What we know:
4 helices, 139 residues, mainly alpha
Amino acid sequence: MxxxxxxxxxxxxxxxTLLVYLVLTINVGRARAKYKVPAPQISxxxxxxxxxxxxxxxxxxxxxFLPSLWLFSLFVSPIWGAGIGGVxxxxxxxxxxxxYTAAEKRGIGFGINSLSVLVLLIGALVGMIKLFINTPLGx
Length: 139
């Protein structure tokens, strides 16, 4: 049986991630009104397109980040997983602020996000391999 109490930490990182995504989604709606880009149109004013790309790119990144966060938390450490997840959330906010200003300013946030996911994914894989090696077959 999995002990749920330590999983509070990655769960909080997940909630923070989803709240950031919600804000980014709301920002797209606000940008549609501000820059007069009606749905379902996704192009027009360059400022709108940057806001839209932040939300879309975040959607794409969530597919890699969330499973990596949880696999790392389960097979390595929920505390470290949550900490690295928190770094990812901060990186995503930096990415959004940079991209909203100019596409060229998204690099630092993107780097923080990429490194965070890489650590989570590789760490999870190492944790799974260690468990497999140290556990007798059939148990």
